[in-house]
Each structure stands twice: as C-alpha cells, then as structure tokens.
Specification:
Layout: H1 21-38, E1 51-60, E2 73-76, H2 84-98, E3 102-104, H3 106-116, H4 126-136, E4 140-173, E5 179-209, E6 214-232, H5 238-264, E7 267-276, H6 284-298, H7 302-315, H8 320-332, H9 336-349, H10 353-363
Parallel strand pairs: 2-3, 2-4
Antiparallel strand pairs: 1-7, 4-5, 5-6
Length: about 375
Amino acid sequence: MTGTDRPTLPPRGGGAGPTPIWAWLALAATAVVAASCAAPDVRPRGSDPPLRRVTARVVRPAPVDLYDRRLETLGVVAFEGPGGRDLAQDLARRLARTGAFRVVGPAEMGERLMRAGLIVRWDESPSALRWVYERTGVDGVVGGRVVEFRVEGFEEEKLTLAPAPTGEFGFVRTEEGKLAYREKLAYRPVPLFCRTDTGTVGAQYRIWDLRRGEVVATLPRRLTTQVPSFCYRGDVSADLIHEAQGRLLKRLFGQLNRQVLESLVPEHERRDLFFEVVGPGVKTSLVHANELGILHASQGRWRQAIETWEECVRLAPDAAWARYNLGVALAAVGRRTEARKQFQEAWIRKRRPVYRRMARELGGGEQGKPREERPHQAPAGSGNGEG
C-alpha cells in the first residue's frame, strides 16, 4: 500500500497501471463490514418501550391448586360411612355456589357412574381413574369417607318460675293500665329439663385428577360442635329429639365443608400487572394482536387474552415478548405451571432479568402471585416478526 490516503492494488499480470473501479468498491465494502462487526451496539436504551401497567382482577391459587391443573368440572361422589351422602350433598351445594367450577352433584354423578358400570373407590388405580374420565366427562372427583361420627345429648335440670292459681280474687292492674277483678296468681319454682346435643364428625376428603389418573390431595378434617336443642317439662317425643339432631348434623357438615372450601377454591383480588409493549421493527399484525391482548387483560377477559397471545406465539415462536405476556396472563388465572414454562422460554430467547425473576418466583413454594415489576425499557424490535 502506497500513500497515506488510499490503497493501490497491483495491476493484472504484474504490470503497472491504474487500479480498476471494481477493486475500490470491494475494498470499501470489506471495510464497512469489518467496522460493523467490530463496533459495539450503541443504540440508546431510552428509546425502548416500557412495560405497561394494567390493574386487573386475578386469581390467587388455593393451597390445593385445582385451577392450575385446569380441573374445570368437578364431580362429588357420596362419602363412605354414616352420614356420607348428606355430607357430599352439602359439599356439592357449596362448591357450586362459589362459581369456581362446574359441579356435578352426588345424585347425577352416581347415575353417570352407574350407566358406565364404574365406581370410584378410595384406593382407585390410575388406569381406572382415566377410564372414569373418558366415560363420564368429569375432570376431577371429590369424595372421601367418614371415619368418625358421634352424636350425643345430655340434659340439665333447671328451675323456672311457673304461675299457679291461689283461689283468691281481687283487683289487679292489667297491661293496659286498667283495674280488673281476677284470681291472683303465685309464681312457684318448677323443674325444667334443657337438652344439649354434641356432635363430632371426622372425615377424610380426597380429590382425584381423572385426566392424569392421580390423587391430588387428601384432607383430613375433624370438628366437634355443641348446640343447645330445646327445653321441656315432662315427657319428650322421639321425633323432637331426631329433629334436633338433624339440625346439629346440618350445622356440623356445613362448618366442616367450609374448612375444605378454603383449601380448594381460589380467591380473587385486584393487582397491578405489567405487560410488554413491542417496539419498532415488529410486524404490524403482531403489534395489533399484542394491543388486543392487553385490552382483554385490562377488562378481565383472560380467556380471550390467553388465546390472543397463544396465536402470537404460534406466529412468532421466538418472540420473547409474546411468551412473557402469555405467562403473565396464565399466572393471572392461576395456571402457574404453564406460566413458569413461558417465562423460562422467554428467558432462553432473550436474556432480560424480568423473565428469569418471574420464572423463579413462580417456581417457588409461594402461593401468591408474582410480585409487581417496575416498568423498565425493552429493546426495540424485540422478539420475532421483524419486517
């Protein structure tokens, strides 16, 4: 190379002569490529779009997370043991009242099992459980057995004042303030018997996942309640005692099932969620789909939001922003396992700290939602679908 401004090439055939124009163009292109490969990425991060805050109603999973397993239809079968059918009927009514699942009561569930020639036993095998799922169309079954059932009553004698005629007449003042000539009454203590019923019910609740063919959880519960029934003088009929014990059992079953519902039914709360907005360089169709998903999420239409971002992931499998937003929506409805998988996939495709942090928080033993993330900058043209 001669000179200080521009290089020269040897002429063809080793002779002297001017350098052709094509040689100068090749050298310039080589220099530009080398400079672009060696130069660092100096794009300003201030131009990247931030995360968008959305306040929405989300689901807080219960200790026994049936929502994450997507058990939408629950069948309740009669419990084994005394009082088991009444306990199952009360549980089915309370489950249906929550609106968290579609509930098939003990009577209808029994008819479905009878038509299919099946039965759900306490120690049912996984293959038999999957067979029940195929023949009945129920995702999960709640049942169990009553291991303790005791109702006792005891009576306590008390004294009460009862009016008795004296045979003497005179003027007495009535409640209206008037004088009336009536027989005088004397109040004397008489014995009164008051009955109190005490009931104890112990049950083991079991939840089966029919699709996976496994037992989700076994919940032992025991409760004792004491209820004053009635007071009487003289003889008391057996029907009155039976009616009082029925009220006691109804109250016992209700209190026992309320404890179980706290472990099965997810709670709802309003939280601030953050969704990633796509920057320049992403296809217009994906930008519009992402905005539509954020709109669905802000209005609580989680099923539509999840379907929208699933379509984005299908069209752009390497789009980290689509997998992140899909993970946030899945976590908002309690599907934590699927949400954690999407955050991990987003982290593999783009090393943003928020992706790894969300995946770690969902992977722990916490039952709450991922903690709120402060808005931060996202690189322009993030994800797939660049055009």
